[in-house]
Sequence to fold (736 residues):
Amino acid sequence: MFVKLFQMDADITSIIEPLNEAQREAVTTASVPVLVLAGAGSGKTRVLVHRIAWLIQVEGVSPLSILAVTFTNKAANEMRGRIEDLLGIPAQGMWVGTFHGLAHRLLRMHWQEAKLQQNFQILDSQDQLALVKRIIKGLELDESRWPHKQAQWFINARKDEGVRPQNMDDGGDPVQRQLIRIYSAYHAACERGGLVDFGELLLRALEVLRDNKALLAHYRERFRHILVDEFQDTNTLQYSWLRLLAGDKIPVFAVGDDDQSIYGWRGAKIEHIQRFNKDFSETQMVRLEQNYRSTGTILSAANALIANNEGRLGKNLWTDGQEGELLQLYTAFNEQDEARFVGERVRTWVEQGGRRDDIAVLYRSNAQSRVFEENFIAMGIPYRVYGGLRFFERAEIKNALAYLRLTANPADDASFERVVNQPPRGIGARTMELVREQAQVDDSSLQQAAQQLLAQKRFTARAGNAVAGFLQLLQKLSEEIKSLPLHEAVEHINSQSGLLEHYGKEKGEKGQSRVDNLHELISAARGFHFDEAIHGEMSPLDAFLAHAALEAGEGQGEAWEDCVQMMTLHSAKGLEFPLVFLTGMEEGLFPHQMSLEEPGRLEEERRLCYVGITRARQQLILTCAERRRLHGTDRYNLPSQFVGELPNELIQEIRPQIPRSVGRFMHKPQPSHQRFAVEDDFPLQLGDRVAHQKFGEGVVTSCEGNGSHARVEVQFDQSGNKWLVLAYANLERLSA
DNA sequence: GCGACATTGTTTTTT
DNA sequence: ACAATGTCGC
Fold:
């Protein structure tokens, strides 16, 4: 007894000691729902990990009855690793994973209850888009009137709301009616092909628990504690799933930061944080406000900026560390100059003994990276760009996987379409049209339809041969790889499908890198670990295919060289760097034009800026350009209103030495502590609606010059984009 | 079926 | 500007 108590004490110490007061409070609360408002850099992952350790080692909770959910695989892996480090044992049997990963696991275990095919395959968003496109074609809708992207967005939004096509009403709206038709046909195609998209994983997982009382009871019995990371990012479906699973007995431990909610545009609802206290009873709220990352100056700037948002739960970051250096602001002439400035600062940093991978160059949109890249290359500065195409999303990889999927599930029409003529084997549009038609008539898979047509000799001789060849190939492949270990199966597919040979013939570096990637796929298969706990009774092949869809892999290979890190603000969330460049701080770019139009969006942009600022540990440098070439035309942007919202005394301005260029800017009304005096009183503002005698109505999208040289760019509703000289154009202003 | 031209769309990204 | 599609003629 004594020994046991002593041991327990030791465990408690290691769990509790490294924590501050607030963290400790969160980690040790009794089993009630807890909402931890964790500011940037306040040790949120640490709190989650220590909470789990606390539950297991102090409260004696079995690891088997803990469910921990994150959004990204990276976060899930990190959490798992840190739990194992802290506990010193493998986190066996613990359900730690992403919403999608856990939903997938649930559906594989209960595919019958979920009314799925046992060998269902996962569609990633690319696959989904391709399928939607085909559905629209199949319904003989005009593709220009029914953009596939919009239809995809519609379908995903409905799934997020948990709405099925059969429960929808068009309310007499013809547009709605067609969209429902598309959704409906898409859904039917998925059902027949055994295909499940990302939204479907979540929705099915919700439905299967909701509609099976016994199953729900089982899981409520099993999971006694649920922990959620990045709670502000949950969408409606994810939140409903959590609530359903938690019922009113199981305490949810949610960690999030309303100020870092930056995914509203893809369905995340910040309101879930606010609803937490209403939806769960006897909740406890803990704020983590002590920041262990940034200097006092950086935190003051962040606090001042985010104070401009309304309806916050409220939080003020503080540190007991150094005040640190001032923020710096460089107003460049143009984007070239901006890149040059950043390059020089990188050089200085390195000369002073700093590491390049301690530096991040952040920007609002990916297109901005190019100028920086070109400049870094010219200056001989190694860099790494995050984001972009990921390994399992590459065309050659998806093609090889499609062959594999067809051997696993012959009904997978999405994969059939993908590789039927890849490499080219003489099966063209005409032939496929016939096959699709037949499939529709028979309500069968494309492969079956092709078989059918072949048997009935309904192809022309040439097409028939080609189709027969393809079907035989598929047949042969699925038989041959049955007995092979996974990586040999991949190797076999690569060579026998003709893909390898095909890409080998492709000229230039592109072909070579595709061949390399196909070889890399074999290594990925060899390195893939089948985990019985996760994959259950799936075949290794199915498990690998699911893994490929759910974990798209890295964008670029591992960088061994010490290089500058470049990424969008969105992908920087969760990371930290001693030196951060926040670039392109211009109105229209950041906040982005698209977000300026709807009111709620601006606050999200501000949160994005807040995220950017709080990435910096020691020094933060802001840059903007007076003139920027975007989509082929020069724009004269004002500095971002967010720069104006930062306290003057925290900023040191570094101005170009040469006199300013001729362009004068337009302005929007800015907060009172606006730091940029705008002297002219231009009669029009960005966003104004105007009418022109010849061109009709439009919106002012940019302005330059002043007096008699003043020009505005107007995006006309009918007549496109035009630059007009105000003195002659005789524009009529319609609204502010 | 393939290469040459035209058209289009350009915020953010995970799963 | 520019890349990534889509269309058209051979």
Residues 1-6, 657-681 of chain A have pLDDT under 50 and may be disordered. The first helix of chain A runs from residue 2 to 16. Chain A has 30 helices and 22 strands. The two ends of chain A are 77 Å apart (CA to CA).
